[in-house]
Design a protein that fits this description.
120 residues; mainly beta; OB fold (Dihydrolipoamide Acetyltransferase, E2P); 1 helix
Length: 120
């Protein structure tokens, strides 16, 4: 299963770089843990940050090395990539998780708390 995903969130920990063997060559992969918030609009028009979800994100190759060098816990990022379902056999039986393989990771330097639209 694969689906496109675009979202913004904060890193819950510093990225971890590891090397894996793929088709006979060693490749870099960075593991990120990101919290994606889902702001909810309140009756007064303001937004609260209630809700959200954690997701494991993989970044490959040169982008992985850059992510480890630039990103830190708490950094706000925008990621674009493909969602993949990953299953394995654990101590408690079969386990499944959704993992994002990122094509693009960009820093978000500011955050918009509210947006107001005015008719022309």
């Amino acid at each position: 299963m694969s689906a496109e995903f675009i979202g913004s969130g904060n890193l819950g920990a510093a990225p971890v770089l590891r090397k894996v063997e793929v088709d006979g060559e060693t490749r870099a992969v960075a593991d990120l843990r990101i919290f994606f918030d889902r702001p909810k609009q309140q009756p007064d028009g303001s937004y609260s940050d209630d809700g959200g979800f954690w997701m494991n994100v993989s970044v490959w190759g040169r982008k992985a090395e850059d992510a480890v060098r630039v990103l830190a816990k708490g950094t706000r990022v925008r990621v674009e990539g493909r969602l993949r379902e990953h299953s394995w056999e654990g101590d408690e039986g079969e386990r499944t998780e959704m993992r994002l393989t990122a094509d693009h990771v960009t820093l978000e330097l500011g955050r918009v708390d509210t947006v107001t639209f005015k008719a022309p």
